[in-house]
Design goal:
The complex is a heterodimer.
Chain A: H1 2-24, H2 29-54, H3 58-85, H4 97-118, H5 124-146, H6 150-170, H7 176-204, H8 209-213
Helix pairs in contact in A: 1-2, 1-5, 1-6, 2-3, 2-6, 3-7, 4-5, 5-6, 6-7
Chain B: H1 2-28, H2 43-64, H3 70-95, E1 99-107, E2 110-116, H4 118-149, H5 159-172, H6 176-194, H7 203-229, H8 237-242, H9 247-265, H10 274-280, H11 283-308, H12 314-336, H13 341-368, H14 372-407, H15 418-421, H16 423-436, H17 443-456, H18 464-496, H19 503-506, H20 513-531, H21 534-548, H22 576-598, H23 625-640, E3 644-648, E4 659-663, H24 667-688, H25 695-719
Antiparallel strand pairs in B: 1-2, 3-4
Helix pairs in contact in B: 2-3, 2-5, 3-4, 4-5, 4-11, 4-14, 4-20, 4-21, 5-6, 5-11, 6-7, 6-11, 7-9, 7-10, 9-11, 10-11, 10-13, 11-13, 11-14, 12-13, 12-18, 13-14, 13-17, 13-18, 14-16, 14-17, 14-20, 14-21, 16-18, 16-20, 17-18, 17-20
The chains are: A mainly alpha, B mainly alpha.
Chain lengths: 220, 720
């Protein structure tokens, strides 16, 4: 049983990480949102499995919350924004795929190197989970800095949140309130970003951050 | 719960050592001191209530500025509290013993520790005595200022008690946190007091430089305490005392302490703020800043080097000797170049701090060489000079304030002849000037005499470098003392003697009674302490015993109260009464003789007339302050300050006046402050570019910083 619990959790966590890689090389916004939805589903599955394996029922709530908010509400809302702003087919320049993958793999190596020696006393499950979630956080950050479009930056930000939740569910005995607060913070961030995007669009007629920068008063 | 239990256990233990220390001091102490056991109970409560009163007075000061007589309430209250604290501190010093209290204030894991031992009591006595006279003077000064210059300057009333409360708290602090908070309290309150005359030209710049230097000093102190506390994380002084830091940490700590407290005390070249800020404040505040706040900085140095760090290394004293010598000589050379009376006094403070630091350095050197009696002698000289300087420097600042209040100027070149219009002030200033020039039988002489007794013991030290250094230091102290004499002859002569150099000076009036009394009290003490220094030295003996475990009189069997014969290899002694009698007799004989024989023929002429007997309202035919300073300016200033005199002499037949211009540059600014300012500006320009990046660049900066730190952690883990 414990072997199965470990293997399944490992698999689901690795799936979340895989989706982070998938996020990194998407060039179209709709494909990006699809990948994000898949990541959220994988995360929800991971949470549900952990809830079953650790016998902690509140993790099911987390799973449901993740599924509803991140796999359904947010992708749908973001897709509506994309459609409304008519940037569905925008191809945005990212770093070259090879380079991004190399950077991503080195970040994952770094997090494994970091987490493994620190957590020697912890269970294998916790260790793997922490390494995976740190990788997801770092890849999200990498995505935020390698993209120019504001929507993909929002997606990068939310994948960072996914990494945090992955860390939170991997550790046994994490109180419920943490997940609630994380979910709410994502919610707030989503609302803020949504309003922000519409305002930017209204004002400047573009979502390209590079173009918006020229409107800043202080830069020349 | 275990936390409280531990604390109460600690408290109990402290209580025991406390009693032990008390008993030991009592047993060793000279029998005629008062044994006021009852004072130990609630002693700290008294100090706490007094400081609370000061804070309340500060709150009261805000509306009091608008009431009629409100200034009297605030100054009167502050003066009364200070007088009570002075008395309390003197009795505690006499009674000995250590009182501690832990208040549940401050950070959750670090309650406020307060402690009063002999050293604190001594400095409390000095601070609060000057605080009391300055309160009386400030009351009179405010009135005089009001009468002459119309409405009062900025808010002094609420800040004045706050400043005193800050200084008192620094002296009572028993952990680094309380110490630093009170230190900043003191700095900021005095900074605001400097800004009281903010409409005057140059005050804003002085205050800005003061704020920068105060920030620098506190940063140094913060690092110093961090180093001293080490990795234990316990910032109470008791913990620092028990954990001796490593040699490197101790050395760095002492260096940072000298930088931090030295910048507040005015060690050259960190003195640059002092001659700007001290004169800019109202005169009673100037007296407090110059006479007392610098002593609080000296207290910090003493507390750390003598008490907290335990056994000293000899080179600490060596560093202090060098720093003190440079400060003493440079300070008085600066003072000789000044035409502004209050700025001259501020530079003279720099000189006196140098002398005090030299005395402390001597004490450290002898303590490290395990010659405690000579260390006690040097330490007594330092403590005596601290008392003396607080007395005569406050007196001189009060006098300068009196001149400022009645003539409206601080420029020596616009004074002159004030002895005729302000006789009482002139006489009291004469006492102060003679005392600061260390003339016997006044107190300045006794302090320097004691210091020289310690210096003469220098050859008994084991290190050759110290033997040579101390000889040089002795020469520096002698040079500084002689130059101080010249400086104050110049200042007093141009301000009070001769003829008036401006209309304002000729129309000056004597100041009101409060200011005169406030000047008379320190002047009287200057004479009393000069004639009979031994009782004061006996009084401060517990402090020297606490720090170097010896008294200056140990090993001398015969030691009456009117005779000062400290233990030393040279065996000199001083009797102020003999000096007083001899000097009085010689003066009387000389005065009579001059009166009787020097001028047989009556010849009336204007003093300093240079052959012109016509009335000369501008007084231009007499010595000016710059002409008086010219010989010394030529001898020393030409090299040190690159001083140059240029004379613009009109051609014969031209009616415009000839003009002498003196140009000089301040080496501390040229070599230290200006380059630092340029460096900071250049760095700020570079950093400014970071303010104008794109959002993605900011995110990238964060990302790369994070990754770099993570890589660092990973590499370090592999390493270990």
């Amino acid at each position: 049983m414990s072997n199965l619990a470990y293997d399944a959790a490992h698999l689901l966590g690795a799936l979340v990480l895989m989706m982070s890689f998938a996020l990194l090389y998407q060039r179209r916004l709709s494909a990006l949102l699809n990948a994000f939805t898949l990541q959220a589903v994988a995360l929800a599955a991971a949470a549900a499995w952990q809830g079953y394996a650790q016998h902690s029922h509140h993790l099911f709530i987390t799973a449901v919350l993740t599924l509803v908010l991140k796999a359904v509400v947010m992708p749908v809302a973001l897709r509506r924004i994309v459609v409304k702003l008519n940037i569905e087919r925008t191809i945005e320049p990212a770093l070259s795929i090879g380079l991004t993958m190399v950077a991503g793999v080195s970040l994952v190596t770094l997090s494994i190197l970091l987490v493994m020696p620190v957590t020697e006393d912890a269970t294998a499950l916790t260790r793997e989970d922490l390494a995976l979630s740190l990788s997801v956080v770092l890849l999200g950050l990498l995505m935020m800095i390698s993209r120019r479009n504001a929507v993909s930056q929002v997606v990068g930000f939310m994948s960072i949140e996914n990494g945090l939740i992955l860390a939170a569910i991997g550790v046994a005995g994490m109180p419920m309130i943490v997940e609630m607060s994380i979910a709410f913070s994502v919610m707030v961030a989503f609302i803020v970003f949504g309003i922000f995007l519409f305002h930017i669009r209204e004002r400047f007629d573009t979502l390209d951050v590079q173009k918006i920068e020229s409107f800043r008063g202080e830069s020349q | 719960m275990p936390r409280t239990a531990q604390r109460s256990g600690l408290w109990k233990k402290r209580g025991n050592t406390n009693v032990a220390v008390f008993a030991c001091i009592r047993a060793r102490n000279v029998p005629y001191l008062f044994h006021l056991h009852f004072l130990r109970f609630g002693a700290m409560a008294f100090a706490g209530v007094a400081i609370l009163c000061l804070l309340l007075l500060s709150v009261l000061g805000m509306p009091a500025a608008r009431w009629k007589g409100g200034d009297g309430v605030v100054y009167g209250g502050t003066g009364a509290v200070c007088a009570a604290l002075t008395l309390w501190a003197a009795l505690r010093l006499a009674g000995g013993g250590v009182d501690e209290v832990v208040l549940p204030l401050g950070l959750p894991w670090l309650p406020a520790h307060l402690r009063a031992d002999a050293l604190s009591a001594f400095f409390l006595m000095v601070v609060n005595f000057t605080g009391a006279t300055a309160s009386l003077y400030g009351w009179g000064y405010g009135r005089a200022h009001h009468a002459v210059h119309g409405p009062k300057p900025g808010p002094v009333l609420p800040l004045y008690p706050l400043f005193l409360a800050g200084m008192n708290l620094v002296l009572l602090a028993n952990d680094a946190f309380v110490f630093l908070v009170s230190w900043e309290f003191m700095s900021l309150a005095s900074w605001l007091l400097v800004l009281a005359n903010h409409r005057e030209e140059g005050t804003a710049r002085a205050a800005r430089i003061y704020l920068i230097m105060a920030g620098f000093g506190t940063a140094c102190l913060l690092l110093a305490f961090g180093l001293l506390a080490g990795t234990h994380g316990d910032y109470s002084f008791a913990a620092i005392r028990t954990h001796t830091p490593t040699a490197l940490a101790g050395a760095l700590g002492v260096g940072l302490m000298l930088l931090g407290a030295g910048s507040k005390a005015g060690l050259v070249p960190l003195h640059i703020w002092l001659p700007l800020a001290h004169p800019a404040a109202p005169s009673h505040v100037s007296a407090l800043m110059s006479g007392v706040m610098t002593k609080v900085a000296v207290y910090a140095i003493v507390r750390v080097t003598f008490d907290l760090l335990g056994e000293p290394a000899w080179w600490w004293g060596g560093v202090m000797l060098v720093a003190g010598s440079v400060t003493a000589v440079m300070g008085i050379l600066y003072a000789l170049m000044q035409d502004d009376l209050k700025r001259l006094l501020a530079y003279s403070t720099v000189e006196n701090i140098g002398v005090i630091i030299i005395a402390l350095g001597m004490a450290l050197v002898f303590k490290a060489a395990h010659v405690p009696v000579i260390a006690a002698l040097a330490l007594s000289a330092a403590l005596l000079h601290i008392v003396n300087h607080s007395l005569f420097k406050s007196l001189l600042f009060f006098g300068a304030g009196a001149v400022l209040a009645s003539t409206g100027t601080r420029d020596l070149g616009r004074m002159g002849g004030l002895i005729h219009t302000m006789p009482v002030t002139a006489f009291l200033m004469l006492v102060g000037a003679a005392a600061i020039s260390s003339l016997p039988p006044l107190n300045g002489f006794v302090g320097e005499w004691l210091l020289f007794q310690a210096i003469l013991n220098g050859p008994t030290l084991p290190q050759w470098i110290l033997k040579i250094l101390i000889a040089l230091v002795g020469a520096a102290v002698a040079l500084a003392a002689a130059l101080a004499g010249a400086c104050f002859v110049r200042a007093y002569g141009t301000a009070f003697l001769g003829r008036a150099r401006s209309v304002a000076a000729s129309g000056a009036r004597e100041v009101n009674w409060a200011m005169r009394v406030a000047m008379a009290v320190p002047a009287l003490l200057c004479v009393v302490l000069g004639v009979m220094p031994t009782p004061l030295l006996r009084l401060v003996e517990p402090a020297t015993r606490l720090l170097v475990e010896a008294g200056p009189f140990d090993g001398r069997a015969y030691q009456p109260w009117f005779w000062l014969a400290p233990t030393s290899a040279v065996g000199n002694s001083y009797n102020g009464l003999v000096f007083l009698v001899v000097i009085a007799a010689v003066s009387a004989v000389l005065g009579l003789a001059i009166h009787r024989w020097a001028s047989d023929r009556v010849r009336r002429s204007i003093a300093w007339g240079c052959g012109f007997d016509e009335p000369d309202p501008a007084g231009v035919t007499q010595y000016t302050p710059s002409s008086f300073g010219q010989p010394i300016r030529r001898a020393f200033g030409a090299t040190v300050f690159r001083a140059r005199d240029t004379v613009d002499m009109p051609e014969p037949g031209d009616v415009r006046p000839a003009r002498l211009t003196v140009r000089w540059s301040d080496p501390a600014w040229v070599w230290l402050a200006d380059p630092v300012v340029r460096l900071v500006n250049a760095a700020a320009d570079r950093v400014n570019e970071i303010q104008f990046l794109t959002i993605r660049r900011y995110l990238s900066l964060m990302f790369f910083a994070l990754v770099a730190l993570l890589v660092l952690v990973a590499v370090l883990q592999q390493w270990s």
